[in-house]
Amino acid sequence: MKVLVLISGIADPKWPLPPQPDAAALEAHASRHAVLGPFDEAALELALQLRDADPSTTIEAAVAGPEPLARKVAEWRLDGVRRLAPLPAPWDVQARALALAQAIAPWASQAARVLMGREFGDWDDGTTPALVARMLGLPHVPLSLSVDERQGVTRQRGGLIERLHIPGPVLLSVTNDARNRLRLPLLKNVMAARKMQFESVHPNAAAAALHLDGMRPAP
Question: What are phi and psi of 49, to 5 degrees?
């Protein structure tokens, strides 16, 4: 089985925001201090759990972020890591999702499971996974907590927990949970990741339909 994980990264909250919080400064800050977000970590851990259950499972990752973030993802000994750069401006979610879907379509067409966080980065309000799933023609299961090839997908639905059995390929947008807390990578894999080179894929960015009029800090 092939699994594709989409990683967005977030700006490390330990670093203060730039004094002039305009769009360009915030984008540069996020690139300079990119780390895995909690939803990225949850999606990656579910992929690793699928490989634990079936060692023949292969995992590829598409990372929409700088090279240090791709190197971090490679620390879990994946079968392939590619960088997606650049994507359209994050406030135009439809253009961004379209570019993302077009870029990953060749790998997603071969994957039984496409995993991504419930929010694709700091700017996303949770709509990106649903848009990407629609553009790829895949069923979408939001708020996924766990996945097992025999027991199906477990997801949160309000105050309830549902279990779904989906026979074919599917896109799961994953929310963080105690059951999908990301494990630590092995030291030998961390050292190996430092020497890796990563292929960069440049999506065909559609013209933005939405433009940012302005930004100001809010308490």
Answer: -65, -35
Q: What burial class does residue 99 get, using C-beta atoms within 10 Å of its C-beta: 0-12 exposed, 13-18 middle, 19+ buried?
A: buried
Report the sign of the C-alpha dihedral through residues 35, 39, 43, 46, in that order: positive
Please report the pLDDT score of residue 205 as a whole number: 67
Per-residue pLDDT tens over the stretch 119-157: 999 989 999 999 999 999 999 999 999 998 888 999 999
Residues 61 and 25: beta-carbon distance below 8 Å: no
Residues 6+ apart with CB under 8 A from 203: 84, 87, 99, 100, 102, 103
* Helix locations, the chain, DSSP H: 23-32, 38-53, 67-73, 93-108, 128-136, 187-193
User: What residues have CB less than 8 Å from 175, skipping those under 6 apart?
Assistant: 39, 42, 117, 118, 143, 144, 145, 156
Question: 158 φ, ψ to 5°?
Answer: 65, -125
pLDDT at 79: 96
- pLDDT at residue 54, as a whole number: 94
- Placement of tokens 């780390």 in the chain: 35
Residue ranges of the chain with pLDDT lower than 70? 205-207
The one-letter amino acid code at 91 reads W
To which residue do tokens 């994507």 refer? 87
